[in-house]
Amino acid sequence: MNAFKNALRQLDGAAIIAATDQSILATLERPERIVEVNVPLTLDSGEKKIYTGYRVQHSNARGPYKGGLRFHQQVDINEVKALALWMTMKCAVVNIPMGGSKGGITVNPKKLSRAELERLTRAFTRAMKDVFGPDRDVPAPDVNTNAEVMSWIMDEYSQLNGKNEPAVVTGKPLALGGSKGRDTATADGGFMVLEEVAKKLKLKPKQTSVVVQGFGNAGYHIAKLAHQAGYRVIGLSDSRGGIVDLRDKGMDPDNVMTRKKEYGMIGDMYCIGSVCDGTNYKAIANEKLLEVKCDILIPAALENQLTEKNAGKVKAKVVLEIANGPTTPEADEKLARKKVLVVPDILANAGGVTVSYFEWVQNRQGLAWSAQKVRRALEPIMKAAFNEVWERRGRYQTTMRKAAFILALERLSEAIRARA
Ligand code: NAD
Predict the structure, then answer these.
(1) Active site at which residues (predicted)?
(2) Residue from 302, 305, 321, 358 whose mutation best tests the ligand 1 pocket (most atoms within 8 A of CB)
């Protein structure tokens, strides 16, 4: 499945409804710049290997390029192009003055030692020294990258430039100018959107069941927030499998995380004597988790999880896309026909880039905001974005995804026209 083709179908579908100027659409259909680098790495064993990395800069019409960095064996150029396009749209939906980019290295980081990973990250940063920059292009964490990886990039880039450059990346540790609240921002923003959806659909937490696919940074935190607010989290999974709560009562994601750390996986841990047991919990394959009867399904893993094949089997009322691109256009159509409300990634997971933007602002001003200030700044942005998308959904009688793209296209068109 070509994620970039999917992203283009989403863009073009919305552009027809919004009657976007053809020349503006043509600009947005192609990334402004694609950089591919081949980075040599000496493994701990002395063996030398070459890894391919990418940075795709989709649009800087509204501000410097901004987007995460993914380390995964499946990273390919079409995936990175799609993710970069979605970043442009996302920043426009939440109305922050940043553009869209994305990067990645085709590598399975779980097979590298920490020292190898650091050398690879630093070599990649050297290769990208003229591509990254606080006013040019600002990376952040994504799948399999974290605050530590960001600190290596910040340190390497600062050394190359002979001065401290904290604003070159976001998602850094607090000690290096990271923002309070960045680690949970994607989930915080997603949960704010979920609360808005719940208001519109009159869902009560206790009577609302939630299933989360992907138990990483974003998935774990949103499961935790939902549980704390009283929603029943009845299914969770990671790349090695999942569990469902047969009692339908809901489980505590913190207990599951403790067990995951102990056993290294979620699936099957129910039978190792834990939070889970064979009577109340059942192991479930990843694909099956998406078909579990629930009210809110939250994909928080990778792209192309809801497809033409399984969309018909989704039993949720709402799909809240915390992952980027989890639903293919074919699945979107099927879900719309089934009246499943799909809250698109470019709205639902935009809390991450919004707090990244706050981090960049703090670094440039030499300030450190309190956690309360971050939250107070995030909430109105997420709520306004939700309501602006919801309004367009009604006005154009369309899906939330198309409505979000329409909103983004309005803002991008204005910026592109103003520069011409
Ligand atoms: P992560 O690496 O912390 O977690 C990914 C999780 O998904 C892991 O638990 C992994 O085991 C699981 N997973 C992988 N394949 C799976 C499968 N087939 N079934 C079930 N689980 C599977 O990554 P993350 O940062 O949490 O990102 C997850 C998604 O959210 C990505 O699509 C990412 O682009 C998106 N996202 C993340 C952020 C952020 O701030 N972290 C922001 C916006 C969007």
Answers:
(1) 102 (proton donor)
(2) 302
